[in-house]
Amino acid sequence: MLIALLAVLGVDLIIIVVIVAAALSRRLWVSRQPGVFKGAIRVVQGEVPGLKARWKRGHGRWIRDVLVWNKAPFGFRNEFVATEALAGEIRAADPGEIKHLGKHPAVIPVTADGGARIEIAVTEDGREQAHGPFPAAPEAAAGSPAAL
């Protein structure tokens, strides 16, 4: 529909192709960075610039104690979240809580600078990278349902 609207407005097809190619190549580049994980993020308490209380899908990676979040669908915007520590135990996501992350997503609560609290929902494949610089809880590492 968007392509048809641009064509009606007189935008050349080559411009549309270039925009689509740039968006797809950026998305591929972001997903292949070292330490990247697929997931969703939301703010639970407080305020974090660029993030909201609703789940927003994308890709994340850790640079020391800073979470770099690339918002889906294109990954053109990065949000940087300075973090302090895990805000609780890593848990299994409730059924229907978050979609498009496979059968067994995990939710990782993190305290951000300024007292805000965020939650990061991750796929099974991204659980090891997602807790970042913070060590996993001993009971989670022992094989509980919310295990990393």
Explain what the structure shows.
The protein is built from four helices and seven strands. The C terminus is likely disordered. It has a six-stranded antiparallel barrel with strand order 1-2-3-4-6-7. 23% of the residues are buried. The radius of gyration is 17 Å and the shape is elongated. 23% of the residues lie in helices and 32% in strands.
Question: Which helices and strands, and how do they pair?
Answer:
Layout: H1 2-8, H2 13-31, E1 37-45, E2 56-63, E3 66-71, E4 78-86, E5 91-92, E6 106-112, E7 117-122, H3 127-130, H4 138-141
Q: Helices and strands, in N-to-C order?
A: HHEEEEEEEHH
Uncertain spans: 138-148
Strand content: 25-35%
Question: What's the architecture of the largest domain in CATH terms?
Answer: Roll
Derived structural class: alpha+beta
**What count of helical segments does DSSP give?**
4
CATH T-level topology of the largest domain = PH-domain like
Evaluate the radius of gyration: 17 Å
Overall mean pLDDT stands at 81
Kindly give the count of domains.
2
- Residue share in helices? 10-25%
Task: Report the top-level CATH class of the largest domain.
Answer: Mainly Beta
Which descriptor suits the 3D outline? elongated
Task: Compute the number of strand runs.
Answer: 7
Largest sheet: 6 strands, antiparallel, barrel
How are the strands of the biggest sheet laid out side by side? 1-2-3-4-6-7
Task: Determine the N-to-C terminus distance.
Answer: 41 Å
Summarize the structure in short.
The protein is α+β, with helices and mostly antiparallel strands. 23% of the residues lie in helices and 32% in strands.
